[in-house]
């Protein structure tokens, strides 16, 4: 089954691997990201895999701009089968140096932008649609040195659960994949392997659906 996929927060790591994975299945891939050069490289990868790629530079912390970008891309795709949410902000500050404004800025990207993306994509999604998100063990095992990341990932996991329950009656499900390890260039936590786990999460049996799936490598 080929799918139209919209990836928000597209970059060279896990989201790039996921884009290539869906492209290899023949799906059309829409890429929203902050860096034009990175998006151009990903587009070349997707097209090299034989799939069509659409790219848009977008500041995901800007609600209006994000909604407009998602709507334009979804209109080009025609319909959206999978929305993948990937962004997070890494700020190396502990709770005694992190300011409330910095925390809110980071949460706006790592959690709040999910609302902008999904709400804009929803009119283009039907039964069988899926929302996925890149989660992290920081949600329940945070490192104090980057305190905002743990808050983001905990909030993301919680929000995905709420989205899943809200969308389930319409046949759309949401899931976050909690990466319980440190991303690395090689090994079980290499981006390509994490992408396989994210891709597999959408094929869960709906009768036993889990809105949070751990990936332990």
UniProtKB/TrEMBL annotation:
Keywords: Oxidoreductase. It comes from the Bacteria. Gene3D superfamilies: NAD(P)-binding Rossmann-like Domain. GO terms for molecular function: oxidoreductase activity. Signal peptide: none annotated. InterPro entries: NAD(P)-bd_dom_sf, SDR_fam. It holds the Pfam family adh_short. Belongs to the short-chain dehydrogenases/reductases (SDR) family. This is Short-chain dehydrogenase/reductase SDR. It comes from Nocardioides simplex.
